[in-house]
Structure formats: C-alpha cells, structure tokens
Design goal:
241 residues; alpha/beta; 3-stranded antiparallel beta sheet; 12 helices; 8 strands; binds flavin mononucleotide
C-alpha cells in the first residue's frame, strides 16, 4: 500500500505506528516529505533519525488509535528529543486554548481529528457527529474491542479511542470473553453500522469531544480556533507575567 501511495507522487505523506525506517527511506528516495505520527519518544527519535520532515506527537487523548502518554507530557519531550526537526501536537486539541498551549509546549503546529469529524463536510454519519457533540471529556474509552470485532491485530500498545456506548460498556475490559464471542459480536456491529446505530457501532473520537458543541463548516472552525489562539497568545502573557 505504501508503494502505491508513493506512486501517486503526493507532496507529503503521513505515516503512523510501527517501524518508521523502511517507509521513510522509500518516501525520501522518491522525494516525498514524510510526517511521522509518534506515540512514544523512542518512535519519534527513530523517525527523526530516519529523515522524517516533521514529527506529529500524538497524545493518548486522541481519537482513533493512539498510545498511552498524554499530549502535555509527550509534546515537549519529543520537541527536546528530535530537535531541530519540527513537531506538531496531536491529541485533545479542539479550540484556541489547545492551539496556544501546543505552541507554548514547543510545537510548530497542531493536528486535529475529532474536531473535524464534527465538521459539516466530514463524511461521518450525522448521528455519529451528534454523539461527539453530546459527549463529555470522560465519555470516551481506549481499548481493543472494535479491533477484536474487526479481526484487526493491532499491537497491544496501540489501542483505539471511541465514544463509550452500550457495546463498549458490555465488552470493555472483557476482551478475552469478546474474543470467544466474536462471530455474534461482529454480526451485531456490522448490522448496527448498516443501520447507523451508534449505541453499538463505533464512533472513533477523542477526549476533545467534551470541547465540541456544534457541527460547523471546517473553514469556520479553523478561523475561529486560530482567532482564539491569537487572542490568548497576545493577552495571557500580560496577565500572567
Ligand atoms: C475518526 C478518526 C480516524 C482516525 N484515523 C486515523 C488513521 O487512519 N491513521 C492515523 O494515523 N491516525 C488516525 N486518527 C488519529 C489522528 O491522526 C489524530 O492523531 C487525532 O485525531 C488527534 O487527536 P484528536 O482526535 O483529539 O484531535 C484518526 C482519528 C479520528 C478521530
């Protein structure tokens, strides 16, 4: 799949999880820039050494698959570890406060997922978007239940974060049992997916769901977040210092 993606000659390509060296080397030989998303300091170091053009430091708050270190700790540690390679902060950022904080931690930019799932243009089901709007920060779970259902062998250290629902309430921390009941569970999730029933089907989303209160066009979201970040970065130092 990597070779096929490179053959399309993108300006830049994003890579996450697992051994970075061989993928980065191929992309660099093709003259394509690589953004490597790392969940640990060691993976960030290896990717920087292999020639990644930027490291996305992804904290555990993130929606979808992620590691176990929080954004607030991971970003500055990665900034120190890969200097002078630029670092982009990911995980738990959905408003101007998060963007301002990311810059203070030494990041050169931010990488947001959950906020844009709840954007007007996103292809996600409207009911899934509404689940994000309705969720609080503590309404997500990080586990392997939907990987087991889908038969995907994700490494233990990379679990997936979704909005808690009846399915995760039943199976979270009962993964062994789920493995034994996987045929029926898969049928239930497939049927729920087809019916748009997100009390069973997954909504991949992060803890930043608690900061998201509406579904709006992506352009508006970006403008508002960066206006808020700029205002904070101008005013806060005068109050704090
Ligand atoms: C619905 C969804 C799907 C995602 N799919 C992928 C993916 O296929 N590959 C990947 O590297 N990261 C994926 N991510 C993680 C994002 O790249 C990013 O790290 C994350 O969304 C940032 O945290 P946030 O969700 O708090 O903004 C996904 C995130 C979400 C919300």
């Amino acid at each position: 799949m990597w070779d096929e993606a490179l053959a399309l000659r993108p300006h830049a390509i994003s890579l996450s999880f697992g051994a970075p060296e061989v993928y980065i080397e191929k992309a660099k030989m093709a003259g394509i820039q690589v953004l490597y998303q790392a969940q640990t300091v060691e993976l960030a170091r290896r990717a920087a050494r292999a020639g990644a053009d930027a490291i996305v430091a992804q904290g555990t708050e993130a929606g979808g698959h992620t590691g176990s270190i929080s954004t607030f700790s991971l970003v500055p540690t990665v900034v120190d570890a890969v200097h002078p390679v630029p670092v982009i902060a990911a995980g738990g950022i959905a408003d101007g406060r998060g963007v301002a904080a990311a810059f203070m931690l030494g990041a050169e930019g931010v990488w947001m997922g959950t906020r844009f799932v709840a954007a007007a243009e996103a292809l996600a089901d409207a009911k899934a978007k509404q689940r994000i709007v309705d969720a609080q920060a503590d309404d997500t779970v990080l586990d392997h239940v939907f990987d087991i259902v889908q038969g995907l062998a994700w490494p233990e250290e990379f679990a997936g974060r979704t909005i808690r629902n009846a399915f995760t309430d039943r199976w979270h921390q009962h993964e062994g049992e789920l493995g034994r009941a996987v045929t029926e569970a898969r049928a239930a999730v497939d049927a729920a997916q087809a019916a748009g029933d997100f009390n069973i089907a997954p909504v991949w989303a992060g803890e930043a769901s608690g900061l998201i209160h509406d579904i709006r066009p992506a352009g508006e979201i970006v403008r508002e977040i960066f206006e808020e970040a700029e205002a904070i970065l101008r005013r806060r130092p005068q109050i704090v210092l």
